[in-house]
């Protein structure tokens, strides 16, 4: 668990960060220049906050009132940067063993265990210059883990990779989430990454953490649209695969209340729990269950709130059983259908809008230890 309550500045830029991250992955999400790196640099000890407190798993790293300010080394924060920053003249194996030695901790994980976790066994004799970007990042994560950190800080680790390499590395991050055994602070301005990987989501805007909490709760907050980006507005549905229709290549995912959605091309076993990210712009609304329509998913729901944006668009937040779905509609449609809080509706989601390319096995969603999660974004 990571517990941060600080204020500080860098130049004239002020930051105010206040959040608690549960075990697993806590993501700091915000636009470029929002202050994510400034906040993480304060956590790592590279910048000094003006006041406040930072603790990881009960160990205080900084407390201005008590005069505690641990050195970078004593904070034991494993840092993974956008560029891997490996020693170019050393082999992968030497990079890893050096990190373990330099960490100086007898209780660091064995190199072989980390090599297996990240699938880098075949790379050990190679030099960083001969590796792909994704391979280099996996080695960089291994190096950070072997230094014996109490917190793994990943600052835009996928930002320099193309889509294909990102897809290669995400399954390893899924594993890391459950197997690293330490909290992970993940910094990104890519919503699809944070929606997939996080248990806790922290939104950073103009130097301040303006929201934090379980990822599904924060994503369903319509009022954060400006900070998270309207285009990326989405909600998470958690469910379980209850039927696999081989003939049509469709998996039926039950999302509670006997309702299910159909997802094409899903690589998940029967009974497996998954997390679906549904974008607001991929959801339409009907007052009756439609017939003679190609859209396969019509989920019964109820309007909870309607945003009061100016302009042609608006966003509605709807309950779907105990979960939430967001829909981005024109204001004209909202008026025509007389939508208002409490109105019973059907949420229409095109199956093909749920993108299977981002799916991967994972486990360990917060609040449900029975869930092994797979995320589609
Ligand atoms: N050393 C510095 N002196 C003055 N201003 C700084 C310094 N470092 C960062 N800033 C400013 O602080 C603001 C926040 O920067 P920061 O790097 O924390 O944002 P970020 O959210 O990590 O952005 P990105 O996603 O682009 O990395 C920016 O306006 C930046 O120009």
TrEMBL record:
Family label: Belongs to the ABC transporter superfamily.
Gene behind the chain: modC
Protein name: Molybdenum ABC transporter ATP-binding protein
InterPro entries linked to this entry: AAA+_ATPase, ABC_transporter-like_ATP-bd, ABC_transporter-like_CS, Mo/tungstate-bd_C_term_dom, ModC_ABC_ATP-bd, Molybdenum_import_ModC, Mop_domain, P-loop_NTPase
Gene Ontology molecular function: ATP binding
Keywords per UniProt: ATP-binding, Cell inner membrane, Cell membrane, Membrane, Molybdenum, Nucleotide-binding, Translocase, Transport
Segments forming domain Mop: 292-358
Pfam families per the UniProt record, alphabetical: ABC_tran (PF00005), TOBE (PF03459)
SUPFAM superfamilies named among the record's database cross-references: MOP-like (SSF50331), P-loop containing nucleoside triphosphate hydrolases (SSF52540)
Domain ABC transporter: 1-231
Coiled-coil region(s): none
């Amino acid at each position: 668990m990571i517990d941060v309550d600080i204020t500080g500045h860098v130049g004239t830029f002020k930051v105010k960060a206040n959040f608690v991250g549960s075990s697993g992955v806590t993501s700091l999400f915000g636009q470029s220049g929002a202050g994510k790196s400034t906040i993480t640099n304060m956590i790592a000890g590279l910048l000094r906050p003006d006041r406040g407190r930072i603790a990881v798993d009960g160990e205080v790293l900084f407390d201005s009132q008590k005069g505690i300010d641990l050195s970078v080394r004593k904070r034991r924060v494993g840092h993974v940067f956008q560029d891997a920053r490996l020693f170019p003249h050393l082999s992968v194996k030497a990079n890893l063993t050096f990190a373990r030695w330099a960490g100086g901790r007898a209780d660091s994980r064995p190199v072989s265990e980390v090599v297996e976790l990240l699938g880098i066994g075949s790379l050990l004799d190679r030099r960083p210059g001969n590796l792909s970007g994704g391979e280099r990042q996996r080695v960089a994560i291994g190096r950070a883990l072997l230094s014996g950190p109490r917190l793994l800080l990943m600052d835009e680790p996928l930002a320099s990779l193309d889509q294909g390499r990102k897809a290669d590395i995400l399954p390893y991050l899924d594993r890391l989430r459950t197997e690293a055994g330490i909290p992970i602070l993940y910094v990104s301005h890519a919503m699809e990454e944070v929606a997939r990987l996080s248990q806790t989501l922290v939104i950073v805007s103009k130097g301040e953490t303006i929201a934090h909490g379980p990822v599904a709760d924060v994503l369903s907050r319509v009022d954060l649209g400006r900070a998270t980006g309207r285009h990326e507005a989405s909600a998470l549905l958690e469910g379980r695969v209850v039927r696999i229709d081989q003939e049509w290549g469709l998996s039926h995912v039950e999302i509670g209340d006997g309702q299910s959605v159909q997802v094409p091309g899903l690589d998940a076993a029967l009974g497996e729990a998954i997390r679906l990210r549904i974008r607001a712009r991929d959801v339409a609304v009907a007052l009756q269950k439609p017939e003679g329509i190609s859209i396969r998913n019509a989920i019964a729901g109820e309007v909870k709130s309607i945003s009061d944006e100016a302009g042609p668009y608006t966003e509605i937040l709807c309950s779907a059983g105990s979960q939430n779905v967001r829909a981005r509609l024109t204001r004209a449609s909202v008026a025509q259908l007389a939508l208002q809080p409490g109105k019973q509706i059907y949420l229409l989601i095109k199956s093909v809008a749920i993108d299977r390319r981002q799916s991967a096995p994972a486990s360990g969603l917060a609040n449900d230890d029975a869930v092994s999660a797979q995320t589609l974004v």
